[in-house]
Design goal:
The protein is an alpha/beta fold and 337 residues long. Helices cover 47% and strands 12% of the residues. It contains 16 helices and nine strands. The chain has a seven-stranded parallel sheet with strand order 1-4-5-6-7-8-9. Strands 2-3 form a two-stranded antiparallel sheet. It is globular.
Length: 337
């Protein structure tokens, strides 16, 4: 692991070639994954260590990515913290009783990950015996988790979340403080179980402006990154639609900034202090053809050459209907660049 090009790029060290992994690389675009998931719900799959470990390993066996990401879900911490939920196929996480007031907040609690999510720790331990590449642990960031808890499920505009953030500041900061503490504990526990790096997913934070981020999120985000610093393992800070937030995201913390496809790596680098970056090819390009995939992947690799460190990734998760031959072309494009 000490010579892993992924870990070296996270630290801003020179690498022999650009490391690559993909968000949702363990998923429905793989026929072996679809077979593995037959008769199992998403929650059943992530809660069974053997199944979750196998799903994590499948893309490494097939493609030889430079890092594996734990097969899990952003929201698995909801149940042990007191917010029962389900992951509905084609919909996403759906919370049984949304959290929208002080009384609702009182139902939630801090939890110890080893006790509340033992299957995640067991999955990591299984994987560390099998993997020859680094393992990335992850969870959702407070704003993204709050949006699910408040809206009750996925939302296009998160307007209820954005409204309560301003009209109920005591409730909001209480919820953020709890989520930040649980998030920090969960990522720390994954590191202690063996994860070589972690990624904090803030999938929906792009609906905010910089001033709102500073007022309503920044102190809570700093709590997470400061709590993880003693582990001395790379932390990737990723969000979507965050071109206007990259500066404040860097202030919040993290060793690597994840960038989505809505801004080039070249332009993103102009907005922050020199730092390793991860990204950022549009996942829709993988729905085109091998030649286009190779061409676009090489553009991203070239943009990454000027960065202190660059990990190739998509700008968000791979689509389920992505052809396998296009993923093969992606790897050829990145490694041949």
């Amino acid at each position: 692991m000490k010579v892993s090009r992924f870990l070296k790029a996270c630290r801003g060290e020179a690498v022999d070639q650009t490391p690559i992994w993909m968000m949702r690389q363990a998923g429905r675009y793989l026929p072996e994954y679809r077979k593995l998931r037959e008769g199992r719900t998403m929650l059943e799959a992530v809660s069974d260590p053997d199944t979750a470990a196998e799903a994590t390993l499948q893309p490494i066996r097939r493609f030889g990515f430079d890092a594996a990401i734990l097969f899990s879900d952003l929201t698995v911490a909801f149940t042990p913290m007191g917010a029962p939920f389900d992951i509905k196929e084609g919909v996403g996480p759906v919370v049984e009783h949304p959290i929208r007031c002080e009384a609702d907040l009182a139902r939630l609690r801090p939890f110890e990950p080893e006790e509340g999510l033992p299957f995640v720790m067991e999955t990591i331990k299984i994987l560390k015996k099998e993997l020859t590449v680094p393992l990335i642990g992850f969870t959702g960031a407070p704003f993204t988790l709050a949006s699910y808890l408040i809206e009750g499920g996925p939302s296009k505009d998160h307007k209820l979340t954005r409204t309560l953030m301003r009209t109920e500041p005591k409730f909001w900061h209480g919820l953020m403080a709890l989520l930040a503490e649980n998030t920090m504990r969960f990522l720390k526990a994954q590191m202690e179980a063996g994860a070589d790096a972690v990624q904090l997913f803030d999938s929906w934070v792009g609906v905010l402006d910089e001033a709102s981020y500073r007022e309503f999120l920044l102190p809570h985000m700093k709590h997470i990154f400061e709590g993880l610093r003693p582990q001395n393992k790379p932390v990737i800070h990723f969000g979507t639609g965050t071109a206007a937030l990259l500066k404040v995201q860097q202030e919040a913390g993290g060793d690597v900034i994840g960038v989505d496809w809505r801004i080039s790596l070249t332009d993103a680098a102009k907005l922050v202090k020199p730092t390793p970056m991860q990204g950022n090819m549009d996942p829709a390009i993988l729905l085109t053809n091998p030649e286009i995939v190779k061409k676009q992947s090489r553009i991203v690799v070239e943009q990454g050459r000027s960065l202190p460190g660059h990990i190739f990734n998509l700008g968000h998760g791979i689509y389920p209907n992505t052809p396998i031959e296009n993923v093969e072309a992606l790897l050829e494009g990145v490694r041949g660049a």
